[in-house]
Specification:
Distance between the termini of chain A: 47 Å
Strand order of the largest sheet of chain A: 14-24-23-16-17-18-19-15
Radius of gyration of chain A: 31 Å
Oligomer: homodimer
Number of strands of chain A: 33
Largest interface: A-B, 48 and 48 residues
Structural class of chain A: alpha/beta
Strand content of chain A: 15-25%
Number of helices of chain A: 36
Largest sheet of chain A: 8 strands, mixed
Chain lengths: ~900, ~900
C-alpha cells in the first residue's frame, strides 16, 4: 500500500513537494531537536488522489493511515482522542509546496466534544479555558467544514454579551460559555438538520477533507494564478498535537522574522500576544507587542527562541518567518518558513547573506522574486512636498511605496473601478478595518491599502508586501463607516470622491493628491543586478515608443529596443490629422502627399530613439493597427472631424463605414496595410534609414532593425521587404551613404510559426509577438475574453491568464517550432519575444530554455526580466 | 547549356509540364504525321526562369536558342524573316500546362514590316490581303506588347471608313489599308515616342516576352484561382509558321469537337468561317457555319479533317477540341486538346468511352471535373410552366441549366450586386453583346449569361460551360443599349429592374420570373457515381441543419451528417423568442425554464434528422455563435423586442451592450458558452439522447454523435463532455433505456490542433472545422478579409482564397499534426472535415492523402465530393 501519512519524525524535510512547506519544515525542526508538538502529515499525493482518483472523497486506505498515525500520537502523549479525563486535541492545518498564507483552512482544538471538554477542564483546572476552546472549535469547524456561517455565531456572542452586560469576550464566564455552546449547537442543528459531530474521528476526517477542498476555493485559485502555482500540486495536511497560547497569562503566541522583512535589517523582528491563540495575532484583532519585549516577559523562553531563530536561519541559509506558542511558560515551535519580504529587504538580505558568507552570489540572485523588484521601481512621494505637508494619520509601515487615489470601501468595488479604469487614471485606495482573504482581488486592483486594525503580520500587511502594493496598516485614527461609505480621520470626513495619499514606507496618511517622484534604488539592488547580468544568457530589450520611455528603459538596463510601435507616434496631436488625410486619400498621390508630411516627424522620432539607446539595436515595427482606429466612430465626432478636415460629412462617414470591420483583430492591419498601401512602408523605411544616416553622420553606428508585423505567408514578408529594400537603396543613393540595416518579422500569426522555415530564409530576425499569437492560437480576443475567463478559472479549466503567462503547451509549441525551423535554415537569425510575456518571469524562463536571444518588455519590467533571465540560466545553464 | 527551345518535331508530346498543352499536342500531331505548320516551343522553364532568375527579362541564352530555332524554320520553309521577296511570318501563342482559353496573349502575322509586307503582297498576288495582315499585326502587337490601346486603332478605322464611305472593314481597299497603316504608325510613335518596330527579331522577342508577361495578367490570375492552377507552372510559348485562313474564299478557319460538348453525342461538332482568321471565330463577331457544311465547301479537306479528328480522339482516348486553318484549299492543324464539355456531356462521353472499350471505368471516373457536376444538379425550369410560356427570343444553347434574375449590363456591376446579395435572393442575368476575358469575375457572379453575338465556341459560351453557368449566346434579337442600360427584345424594352429567365439547355429567353424545378440526373451520372463509390476510400457526409437538407443530401448519396449546426434551428420563428428569453435570463433557473421550452422543439429537429438519414451517423454540433447574434443591435429594434418580451427597454439595451464584442469570432462562443452556461449543453444533450431513444424505440439504431465546438484546451472538452455524460446518464436512467452515443470535437482552434494528442484521449472523433481553423491560422476574419485579399491576388501573394481551397502548407500542417497526434493516442478516433473545404476537390484530395475518414459538405456538393474522393484514391490508393 502506498504511504500517504507520515509522522513528523518520519518525513524527509527536503520533500516540500510531498509534505508541503509547513510539513517539511516541521519535520526538519523535529529532526533538529527543536520543541515541535508531535504530529503527522497527510501528503500532497493524498490530496491529488482525492481529486483525481477518489471522486472528491477521502479513500479508505488514506483514512486508515490517518487513524494509525493518530494512535501513535496518542500513545506518545498518553492522551486519548475524545477522552473524558485526558483528552487529546489536535490542530489541522493546510500546507502546500509553496506558501499560500491565509488562502486555505485551519482548524484548531479538534477533538473537543461534550465529554472531552470536561476532561480538558479537569486537566487544566481551568473550565473557562476549556469551554472557550470548545466554543472556538465549534465556530471554526462549523464555518470551515460545513459552511455554517460564522456571522451568525458572532451575532449569538454579541447577543449574549449584551444579556450578560459585558463588553469583551474574555469577560464571559465558564458558565456563560457553556450557555453559548448550547446555543451554538442548537443553531448548528437547525441549519444542518443533524447534531454537531461528537465523534473526534469524524471531526478529523471532516477537517482533513475541508483542507483538501480549500485547495480549490476561489481565493486559493486566485492566489495561485497570481503566484504561478499549479493547481496540480495539491496541499498537504498537518495534524499536530494542540498546544495552547491561551492557557492564561504565562501562555502566549507570536510570529517573528530573523531579519526585518521591510528593510532587511539583521535583527529579530516580530510580535506576540500573551494569552492568545495564533489566529488572534494574524487576524490583527488585537494589536500585539514587539518581539523584543518578550525578554521582559520570559527571559529564558526569549533566549531559547533567539537561539532557535539563529539556528534556523543558518540551517536554511535564508531569512526565516516563524510561529511559536508558549504554553504555561514552555516554548513550542509551530512553523518556520523562508520569510516573505519587501523588495528592499530582499535585495539587502540577499547581499548581506553573501557578505556573511552564507550564500554565493548565484544563490543570492535566486533569493529574490523578480516581480518584487516592481516595488523598488515604483514612484515615491516628492520629499520636498512631503516635508511641507501635514499628515492626517499614521499607521504601521506595512508595505513600502507611495500611492494616491480615490477612496474605496470594499474590495468588489475596488476591482470594479479598476476594471473600468483602463488607463489607470483613477486609481483607488482600498480603506478597510481589516482585510481578509476574500478581499484579495480588490487588493490586487487597489493602488494602495489602508487598514484601521491589525499589525505588521496582519493579512493586509502580508499580502500587500507580497504584491508590492503600498500599505499602511493598523491606523487607529481611521474611523470607517462602511454603510455610509465615509471615513473620518481627525474629525474630518472623507467620501468615495475624495483622494487619500499613502506612504507605505513611513506609514503616514495624507489628505488629497500628492505628486510622486521616481524611486531611488538601493545600492544592494545594483549589486544584485550586476550579478544577475553576469549570470544570464538572454539579452533584455524594451518595448518603447518614445525617447522618454527609451531613456527610462535604458536607465533600467535595457540593451536595445525590441519593439517600437510606430502607430503610437501617429496618435500624437501633430500627427493624427496627417494620418487621417492619408486614410481619406482617394489616390496614391494624395496618400503620398499626406505621408510626405509625416516623414520628417517620424524621422525625428527615430533620431530621438537612436540617440537615447546610444547605439544599442532599435527594432521599429511598421504600422500595425487597422486604419479605422485613427477615425472617430460616432456621427457627432465624424461631423466635427469632417469640418476640421474641410471634407464632406457624408464622404467621411462613407470612409468610416468602408473601414468598419467585424473582427478588426483579424482584419486589415499589420503588413496587410503595407501590401495594399506600399507607400506607407516606403515612407516608414525612408524615415528609418534617413534618421540612421543622420545619426551616423554624427559618429554613431546605428544599424536599424525594421520589423514587418502580422506576416502569415512568406510572400507577404518578401513583398514588403522588397519595398523596404528598394526604398532603402534609393535613400542611400540619394544621400550617397551606405548603411547596414536588418529586416525581420513578428511571428504572431500561427501560420507564420508553422511556415517559419520559409520565412527565415530572408528574415534577419523573428520577434515572437505573443499577444497576438496567443489570441490566434486560442481564438481568444484579448478584449472580449475577460468576460468568460472567470468561468474558466472557476471551473479549473485555466489556472492563469494566457495573456499574462505564456501558454507553454500551445503557444509555446508554436514558438518552439518556429525557432527550430528558423534556425535550421538561417543559423544567424536573431530570436526574441516582444509580447507582454517578455516581462513575465515564468515566460522568460521558457524563452531562455528554448534558446531565444532576447526578451523585450516594458521599461519598468526590464530589471525583472534581467533577474528572471539570470535565474533561468542558473537553473538551466545555456551552453555557450 | 540548358535547352529552353524545342522544335515541334523534337519535343516530347507527353511533357505538358515543359511544353504546355498546346505545344505538347502540336509536337504529338507533328509526330503523328498530321499537317501541322512547323514551329518551335519556348518551354515553361524559360518562363519561370524569366520571372525567378532573370528579373523579368529574356535571358541572352534563351534569345540565342530562339533565333537558332527560327533559323531552322526559315531554312525548312525557304522563307526569310523580314524578307522583301519571300517573307517568313509566324504566330506567337501562349500554351500553359492546363488549358486557359483566352486568358493569355496571342500575336499573329509577326514578321511583317514595311518591307516584308510587300513581299507578302507579291507572293500572294494579293496586296489587299498583305496590307490587311500588316494592319492587323500592328493593332495586335501594339496592344499586346506595348499596351498602346486597341480602342484608338478602332476609332481610326471607324474614321477612315466614314471618310471612304464604306461600312465594313472588307470594303477597304489595299490603298485604304496602306493609308490606315501610316496613321497607325503615326499614332504609335506619338504615344510610344519611338517607331513601330521594323526588326522582326525585335518583334519576336517582344511578343515572347508579352506572352510571358500575360501569364501574370489579372484575368489569368483570376482564372488560375478559379481553376486551381498554380502560378509557379508558367506558360510555354509556341512560335509557328503562319498559315492564312483569310487568303481568300478557298481559305478558312474553324474549330471542332470530336463529340458534342453540350450533350456528349458522338458526332463531329463545330463551326468554321471562310476567309477568316481564327480570332474571328472565337471572338464571335461573325456567326460561323456548322462544321458539317464544310463537306460542301471542300469535300477532300472535310474528309481529311474527319480522319484526323478520329485519329486524335483514338490517340488521346478522349474527346478532342481542334483548331484548323485551310490555306488556299490545304488543311493545317493548329491545335488539339481535350475538349471542355458540359457536365452532361462529360458523363455521357466518359460512360460511352468505357462502352467503346477506349477507357476503363477508373479512367472514365477521372475524365470528369468534379465541380462540373454542379451543372447537373442545378435546377431547371418547370417543364409544364415552360410549355405554356412564350419565349421572347432564342439564341444558341451555349451552356445548360436554367437561370432567372434581374438584368445587369456590365460585369463590374454584376460582381457588385452579387457581393451585396449575400443570400442570393437577387440573382443577376448578365446581358452583353459579347463577353471578353475582362468580364470573368462578373460572369462568375451572374446567375446566367445572355449575349447577342458569338457562337458556341465564343468566349461567353466556353467560359460559361466551364463554370457550369447557364448561358444563351449569339441571340440576335437582343438589342442592347449599354449607356441607357436597356435591352430591347421583340420591340419591348427591359431595364435593370426587370427579370429575364434563361434556358441554357434550349437557348430560349423568357421575360419575367419563371420558377425552377430540380434537375433530373442522366443515367450516365449514376453509372459514373456508382464507379466512383467503388473506387473511393473517403466517406462523404453532409452539412445539414434541417430534415429537408438532410433528405436532399441523402438523395445525393451522403453517408451521414458531418455537421448539424444547431443554432440554425434556433433562428426559426418559433424558437428565437425562447432563445432570447434564455439570453436575458438573470438566473440559472430562468435560463433553464427557457431552455426547457426549447427542448421539445430541438428534440423534434433531431428526430427529423435521424429519420431522414435512415440510420447513418448524425453529428450534432452544440450551440456555437455568440449570443448577441440572437439579439438586435439598433435601438429601434431593441425597443420593439423589449415590447414583445415585455421587458424594460433599458434592461434589454444593457444586455445587448454587455454582450457586445469587439471581435466576436474570438469571443464568447462555441464551448465557451457551455462552460459558462452548462445548462445549454445539458438541454441539447437531453434533446439528442431523448430523440435517439424515441427513434430506437421504433426499431432504428441511432448512435448520435455530439460535437463540442471551438475547443482549444482539453479541460474545456472534458468539462463539457462531463456535462454531456452526466445528462445522458440521467436521461437513460429516466427512460430505462441504454443507448450508445459518441462525443467528439471540432478541431478549429490552432491550439486544439497543437494539443490534439491530449484531446484525443477522451474524444471519439475529430472534425476539422477548417473555416475557423483557417481564420485563426491566418488571423484572417472571413468577413473582413475579402477587402484586402484582392491586393493579395494582384501582388501574387495568394493564388487562391484560403477559405475556398484549403491552405495545405499552414492549415494543412495543423490538420496533419492533429490527425497524427490523435491517432497515436486513440487508434479508433474518427477523423473528418466539415469546413467549406469539404466540398472542394483539391482539399478533398488532401484529406484523402492525410488519411481522414470522411469529408462533410453541403448537400449539392456531395456528388462532387464522391467523385473527387474517387479520383484522389485512384491517384494515390489508400492501403486498406
Amino acid at each position: 500500500m502506498k504511504k500517504y501519512v507520515y509522522l513528523f519524525k518520519e518525513a524527509d524535510g527536503s520533500r516540500k513537494d510531498l509534505f508541503g512547506g509547513k510539513g517539511a519544515n516541521l519535520a526538519e525542526m523535529t529532526k533538529l531537536g527543536m520543541p515541535v508538538p508531535p504530529g503527522f502529515i497527510i501528503t500532497t499525493k493524498a490530496c491529488t488522489k482525492y481529486y483525481a482518483e477518489d471522486g472528491n472523497k477521502i479513500a479508505p486506505e488514506v483514512a486508515e493511515q490517518i487513524f494509525k498515525a493518530l494512535k501513535k500520537l496518542e500513545a506518545e502523549s498518553g492522551k486519548k482522542f475524545g477522552d473524558s479525563q485526558n483528552p487529546f486535541l489536535v490542530s489541522v492545518r493546510s500546507g502546500a509546496r509553496a506558501s499560500m498564507p491565509g488562502m486555505m483552512d485551519t482548524i484548531l482544538n479538534l477533538g473537543l466534544n461534550d465529554v472531552s471538554v470536561k476532561g480538558l477542564a479537569t486537566l487544566t483546572g481551568n473550565p473557562r479555558f476549556a469551554y472557550d476552546c470548545y466554543r472556538r472549535f465549534i465556530q471554526m469547524y462549523s464555518d470551515v467544514v460545513t459552511g455554517v456561517g460564522k456571522k451568525e455565531f458572532e451575532e449569538i456572542i454579541g447577543k449574549l454579551k449584551k444579556e450578560k452586560g459585558v463588553e469583551l469576550d474574555v469577560q464571559l464566564t465558564a458558565e456563560d460559555l457553556q450557555e453559548l455552546i448550547a446555543v451554538f449547537k442548537k443553531h448548528y442543528k437547525e441549519v444542518k438538520k443533524t447534531d454537531f459531530p461528537q465523534d473526534p474521528n469524524e471531526q478529523l476526517l471532516g477537517a482533513v477533507e475541508a483542507v483538501f477542498r480549500s485547495w480549490n476555493n476561489e481565493r486559493a485559485i486566485i492566489y495561485r494564478r497570481d503566484n504561478n502555482i499549479p493547481g496540480s500540486w495539491g496541499t498537504a495536511v498537518n495534524v499536530q498535537s494542540m498546544v495552547f497560547g491561551n492557557m492564561g497569562e504565562t501562555s502566549g503566541t507570536g510570529v517573528a522574522f530573523t531579519r526585518n522583512p521591510s528593510t532587511g535589517e539583521k535583527k529579530l523582528y516580530g510580535e506576540y500576544l500573551m494569552n492568545a491563540q495564533g489566529e488572534d495575532v494574524v487576524a490583527g484583532i488585537r494589536t500585539p507587542n514587539p518581539i523584543a519585549t518578550l525578554e521582559n516577559q520570559n527571559e529564558e523562553v526569549y533566549k531559547q527562541f533567539v537561539n532557535i531563530a539563529t539556528t534556523l536561519e543558518n540551517h536554511y541559509r535564508n531569512m526565516q518567518d516563524m510561529e511559536f506558542t508558549i504554553e504555561r511558560g514552555k516554548l513550542y515551535m509551530l512553523q518556520t518558513r523562508n520569510g516573505k519580504r519587501t523588495a528592499a529587504s530582499a535585495v539587502k538580505v540577499a547581499v548581506d547573506l553573501v557578505k556573511e558568507g552564507m550564500v554565493t552570489p548565484e544563490e543570492a540572485v535566486c533569493l529574490i522574486e523578480p516581480k518584487q523588484l516592481d516595488a523598488l521601481l515604483h514612484p515615491q512621494f516628492d520629499a520636498d512636498v512631503i516635508k511641507k505637508t501635514e499628515h492626517i494619520a499614521k499607521g504601521l509601515e506595512a508595505s513600502p511605496g507611495a500611492a494616491c487615489g480615490k477612496i474605496c470601501f470594499n474590495a468588489e468595488e475596488a476591482k470594479k473601478r479598476a476594471n473600468e479604469d483602463k488607463d489607470n487614471k483613477n486609481p483607488v485606495i482600498l480603506v478597510r478595518q481589516e482585510t481578509s482573504p476574500e478581499d484579495i482581488e480588490g487588493m490586487m486592483a487597489a493602488e494602495g491599502i489602508l487598514t484601521s486594525r491589525g499589525g505588521m503580520t496582519s493579512h493586509a500587511a502580508v499580502v500587500a508586501r507580497g504584491m508590492g502594493t503600498c500599505c499602511v496598516a493598523g491606523c487607529k485614527e481611521v474611523i470607517i463607516d462602511e454603510e455610509a461609505k465615509t471615513v473620518t480621520i481627525g474629525g474630518k470626513t472623507y467620501g468615495s470622491e475624495d483622494y487619500l495619499s499613502l506612504d507605505g514606507t513611513t506609514g503616514k496618511v495624507y489628505a488629497g493628491k500628492i505628486a510622486t517622484v521616481d524611486a531611488k534604488l538601493p545600492e544592494d539592488y545594483y549589486t544584485i543586478m550586476e550579478w544577475a547580468d553576469k549570470f544570464r544568457a538572454l539579452k533584455v530589450r524594451t518595448n518603447a515608443d518614445t525617447p522618454v520611455d527609451a531613456a527610462k528603459a535604458f536607465s533600467f538596463g535595457a540593451e536595445g529596443i525590441g519593439l517600437c510601435r510606430t502607430e503610437h507616434m501617429f496618435f500624437a496631436e501633430d500627427r493624427i490629422p496627417r494620418i487621417r488625410e492619408m486614410i481619406v486619400a482617394k489616390t496614391t498621390e494624395q496618400r503620398e502627399k499626406a505621408l510626405a508630411e509625416l516623414l520628417p516627424l517620424q524621422k525625428g522620432d527615430f533620431i530621438g530613439l537612436y540617440k537615447e539607446m546610444q547605439g544599442c539595436p532599435v527594432t521599429i515595427r511598421f504600422l500595425d493597427p487597422p486604419l479605422h482606429e485613427f477615425l472617430p466612430k460616432e456621427d457627432a465626432d465624424i461631423a466635427v472631424l469632417a469640418n476640421e478636415m474641410k471634407i464632406d460629412f457624408k464622404d467621411l462617414k462613407e470612409t468610416v463605414k468602408a473601414l468598419h470591420e467585424d473582427n478588426p483583430m483579424m482584419g486589415h492591419r499589420g503588413c496587410r496595410l503595407a501590401v495594399t498601401y506600399p507607400e506607407i512602408a516606403a515612407m516608414q523605411t525612408r524615415a528609418v534609414i534617413e534618421a540612421a544616416i543622420e545619426c551616423n553622420a554624427e559618429g554613431m553606428n546605428i544599424i536599424p532593425e525594421i520589423m514587418i508585423p502580422l506576416v502569415g505567408e512568406v510572400k507577404e514578408f518578401n513583398f514588403v521587404k522588397d519595398v523596404v529594400d528598394a526604398t532603402a537603396k534609393a535613400v542611400m543613393e540619394e544621400k550617397g551613404v551606405t548603411i547596414q540595416y536588418k529586416v525581420g518579422t513578428m511571428i504572431e500569426i500561427p501560420r507564420a510559426a508553422l511556415t517559419a522555415g520559409t520565412i527565415a530564409k530572408k528574415a534577419d530576425f523573428f520577434s515572437f509577438g505573443t499577444n497576438d499569437l496567443t489570441q490566434m492560437t486560442f481564438g481568444f480576443s484579448r478584449d472580449d475574453s475577460p468576460k468568460f475567463l472567470d468561468s474558466y478559472y472557476k471551473n479549473g479549466i485555466f489556472e492563469s491568464d494566457p495573456f499574462a503567462k505564456l501558454d507553454q503547451t500551445g503557444v509555446g509549441k508554436l514558438v518552439e517550432m518556429a525557432s527550430k525551423a528558423g534556425r535550421a535554415v538561417n543559423a544567424n537569425i536573431k530570436l526574441g519575444i516582444c509580447g507582454e510575456h517578455g516581462g513575465d518571469p515564468s515566460s522568460i524562463e521558457f524563452c531562455h530554455n528554448k534558446g531565444l536571444d532576447y526578451v523585450s518588455c516594458s521599461p519598468f519590467r526590464v530589471p525583472i526580466a534581467r533577474l528572471a533571465a539570470a535565474q533561468a540560466n542558473l537553473k538551466n545553464p545555456r551552453k555557450k
